Amino acid sequence: MQPVRYHVLHETRYDYGSPVSLSQQQLHLSPRVLPWQLVEEQRIDIAPAPTWRRDGADAFGNPVSWIAFHAPHETLRIRSLMNVAVLPHRPADLAASPAWEAVRERLAYDASVPLPEDLDATRFLFESPHVRIKHELADYAADCFPPGEPVLLGAQALMAKIFREFKFDPEATTVSTPVLEVLEKKRGVCQDFAHLMIACLRSLGLAARYVSGYLLTRPPPGKPRLIGADASHAWVAIYAPGTADGWVDFDPTNNLLPDTEHITVAVGRDFSDISPLRGTILGGGGAEPEVAVTVVPVDEEELPEGLLADPLEEA
Q1: Among the listed residues 289, 283, 87, the one whose alpha carbon sits nearest the alpha carbon of residue 175
Q2: Which residues does 211 contact at the CB level (< 8 Å), separation at least 6?
């Protein structure tokens, strides 16, 4: 199997309304290494240069950078560039997965010694800041999980139901909109649909995690690919013992199983664990960031001008 290789550029810029005197930030902008995803090259450029920086891994095994600024600054620009190769990894037979009740029972506490992979999966079994466990959510998903249904077929049916019944509407929600409100309004964006599907699965006793990354979008025929025209994306992974990696991805926004056109950056309980940029500042005047993402297959004959830019200069 040949991988699909990508250039990705993710730029974030803050123009503060007033100087920031102190700042500490956590960055989830480096792609995760997976059995089907190879990171060939990656760097994060920051201007102005931070006073302090440390690169490492978070509690979920995601690459993360911590930075701090101890000098006043009026702008902040962060640019993540990466070359990533993605292999086909969509499971061939969803019906071969175990019954969903069997997976639920494996994850239920019974005082016996759990398998290491089951123990790891239990981190994604409970409520988290953006995910609730409610009977309304279990009821919504119940028709997708009849008795004996293979867990991956049930997840596929739930994904299709959300895609069919919900409308993509960027104006309908914010990052803090509760998942029960999303269920009621049946509108939202990829983050909302991921949180909703995760909440439904966890309400049934299944382990599900939030996945952030990038999705290749194609320009209209005859039109050039534009710098910054893409965006970050979010989808879901469900725990399915016996599969190649133990986890299988589902994209409820697009009603498909992610494969070679999804690039994984991080996994967590929900968005709050792995937001691209999160921290605290003193000053700044409440500025909102400008974010631009570009995803380009390496085999395209001409890359957009400016994609492989030189390192940032001091702002």
Answers
A1: 289
A2: 194, 234, 235, 236, 237, 249, 264, 266, 267
H or E stretch at 101: helix 100-107
**Cα gap 222→233, rounded to integer Å:** 25
pLDDT, block means (10 residues), the chain with 315 residues: 92 93 96 96 96 97 97 96 96 96 94 89 97 97 98 98 96 92 96 98 98 87 68 95 93 96 97 95 86 88 56 57
Q: Which residues contact 221 (CB under 8 A, 6 or more apart)?
A: none
CA distance 194 to 159: 9
pTM of this structure: 0.93
Query: Scanning the structure block, which residue is given the tokens 């005082």?
Result: 111
Compute φ and ψ for 38, nearest 5 degrees: -110, 130
Q: How far is CA 234 from the centre of its chain?
A: 4
Three-state DSSP class for residue 94? helix
Alpha carbon 29 to its chain centroid, in Å, reads 11
Who contacts 128 (Cβ-Cβ below 8 Å, separation ≥6)? Answer: 269, 270, 272, 273
Three-state DSSP string of 109-160: CCCCCCCHHHHHHHHHCCCECCECCCHHHHHHHHHHCCCCCEHHHHHHHHHH
| Residue 193 phi, psi (nearest 5) | -65, -35
Q: Which residues contact 264 (CB under 8 A, 6 or more apart)?
A: 31, 32, 34, 37, 211, 212, 213
What are the tokens at 68?
């701090």
Q: Tell me which DSSP letter residue 287 carries.
A: P
Residue 21: what residue type? Answer: S
**Chain centroid to CA 221:** 28
Helix extents (H) in 179-291? 179-185, 190-203, 271-274
Q: What is the pLDDT of residue 311?
A: 61
> In whole angstroms, how far apart are CA 113 and each of 106, 108, 119, 126, 242?
11, 12, 9, 19, 19
Nearest residue to 206 (alpha-carbon basis) of 245, 161, 152, 162: 152
